[in-house]
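Question (not urgent): is this output format expected?
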Amino acid sequence: MNKSILLSALIAAAALTACSKKEEAPAAEAPAAMAPAAEAPAAMAPAADAAAAPAADAAAPAADAAKDAMGAAKDAAGNAMDATKDAAGNAMSAAKDSAGNAMEAAKDAAGNAADAAKAAVNDAANAAAAATAPATEEKK
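Got this back:
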């Protein structure tokens, strides 16, 4: 993907450069116009190379800028991932602490309920013993 973006930036820069700078080809002399058709492509190759060189030179800063932008985007994505990871860790710690506190509260409440139940049983046993004590003394 990085290569695709870099290549597309290079092509776009070359196209912009080629469209913005229109160079006129030197006027051909009459004997050159009469050259055989086979020699025409060979004569145009240096002209094409000469036209491509400024485009390549102009595209180099754009390629560097694209490379720098990709590096900055990569760094930003790494920073965002680190921040997300830290936030998830903090959320997990908070959830763990809350669950531990809830567990302690439930444990304390269960202990208090058990103590209250024991006290109620003891009170009921004492009340039953007190109620049966006078009846036992009367039988003696």
